[in-house]
């Protein structure tokens, strides 16, 4: 079956609403023209009398110009609207004669609204600043919903209005009902009485001289509440710039009352647009107090001929972000600045941003791998709005499930392990991976964007923000919330300079290695690198030599020892000479043998020259001479040593001279080693001195590094604004940061308790009984005192010296000393805030640091945020932020849906564990009903939205008629 909802055909299939794709996508910017006349506008008809041609021209050009809604306008009547509806749109055969099937399909997507243009019975004097005053009659429009029956408009409204036809002195005025016939009668009478009217028709003259009273218009509409309430708007045309009009003349009050009475203004001037939004008054509330509501402006082509049809002056088209219904039109009253624009181009493409464009589930999909869990998604093709999408539903309907499953198809988006209340079984179940679950993603915001389809059966990666349920609470309860803030500020890699860190490690290693070298022991437990040990060893061997030789024999013994060494070297040379002579002789013999063989084979008669033999005589003789010289030198050394030995024997030495010489060599070698080692020790001592000085200087460098990190945090915070320009910068400053009183500063934190807890572990508990004693020994209470302590050249206590990494090593030092972003909110540190306030601060920071472009999917923000923040600020933030990024929220908070003016509402349903999703615009009656049923305070939220820009708070909101389940 089919049901009509606000002029839109809605087909029901298997209990699910089957709406046109664009309707399911929610509120979108579309082109509306409120002021299009018909041939029944007798006062200025340039269309001619052929109504078929008029209708053809009307719709063909509407299709060409992509007009979605037309205000069919006539003076004092709805004859043109009635004829188009009854004789064309409701007559398939007639449409078939005039249009193709494709054109008919497009015509059915166009909404027609009856617009009646009245001339009021009073005029107003217009005094423009610095310009001559003018006086003119005032026109007044009433635009009706297309759901109001034509007969009701005529019989219960138009025919109950009155026109003056006659008057006599001291008598009652004669009135007639506002009908076509009565206007013709008036015209006929006036033609008889006034010659200048003779060339005009009765209807022209009567209509031209007809005037109605604005109070009567309103009173008739109000007296028929059951028929008209909530189904009309009052429009006041204003050709002048209202911001430039003097309000100090006699017509002040009448002009003000007319504007107070009007819902909207017919004006395309930017000054008037701003004026109607209260921007020219001291405050917006001051305007509301004076004029009762804000006054959005609409416009149209005011077409009286085919040429101007849908061609407003200067291409000032009216764009409205709403369903193409009368209820959609009313949204401009509730959101007068956000829902309507008068400009050439579609506002939808003002900000470039990627967005999820469609969710497609090709067939029924089981959600869990566990076959015992039979929960599944039903088949759906759900177009997604690029602005604010709100997913609502009762408990267990799958409102959170869909976005969590959605996140699960992207590897880089971390899924929350603690799932939502929609399915507690998810804690122990894994999601399926299937190609039947697809997400389409538009990479840019243009009429035909480049799109990517992400297949749920693949491993995908996409950069968007997903904030699962309870995520904000978990993040802000962690001790490492500072690390989270660093990520937001894009300084998560904030660390010591690699060069400085390398220098620290090199300096510490140098001290350790040099000290380790000094402390090395040999197998006998001796320290060969200790200066005292080596000096003692040198002295000991020198004493040994002195004890076995007199001063007189010392020189001989040293000569003897030196000769022994030299004789060994000479013997080695002699051996080398002999070996080389033999090698040369052998080589000479082998080469000459080869030469003789060649000479024997190739004769001179054949032209070959005889090859002479090789002779190494000179080389052999030179080597023989060298060998002889070496023998002579060896003989000389032997003779000298024999003489020395003889001298020792003559001196009465009866011991073993060889043993004496062997010991002397050992002693001398030890002395020589000791001298070399002492030189090395001196070098190491110099190196240690430098390393200790370098280590003492590390304190200053470490301080500089911490201060650099602090400055980086400060710069990152102040840089949030500098990276944006224009309206983006204004959004960051006013909505996310400035008004929120959030401040982030770098702070160097020295945790005294953590420091002494770790420091205490170094000490022998027998000498230092407790931490308090340790604190008394080392008065280190802050960062500056710590820097002074580590800047000494050498620690007095050996145990402290042995644990230098505790002070200088990054991993150990970070336990008690670090640079953190300090967050304050209205002067209070983060730890002093409530959980909701902390979530609020974190969300503000996240939105401020990553505010633009990529989509954000946020599951039930109200669970982790401060209620006052949601009511007073988050609604406004979402309204501004959705212009530059797609926001998708799962929520049970009516204010986030209604007062944040969600462009699309998706309603989740669960029937026998089969999850389904329907969607539409906030102004759609089905969606309104769902919001009021499912969300606590839904109707109150609509009331607040209606009264937000109005001083008429005593008026009740007219909602579509339905029954609200109080238990819902």
TrEMBL record:
InterPro entries referenced in this protein's UniProt entry, alphabetically: P-loop_NTPase, Pol/histidinol_Pase-like, TrlF_ATPase
Gene3D superfamilies documented for this protein: Metal-dependent hydrolases, P-loop containing nucleotide triphosphate hydrolases
Stretches of the chain forming a coiled coil according to its record: none
SUPFAM superfamilies: P-loop containing nucleoside triphosphate hydrolases, PHP domain-like
Annotated protein name in UniProt: DNA repair ATPase
Organism: Candidatus Magnetobacterium bavaricum
Lineage start: Bacteria, Pseudomonadati, Nitrospirota, Thermodesulfovibrionia, Thermodesulfovibrionales
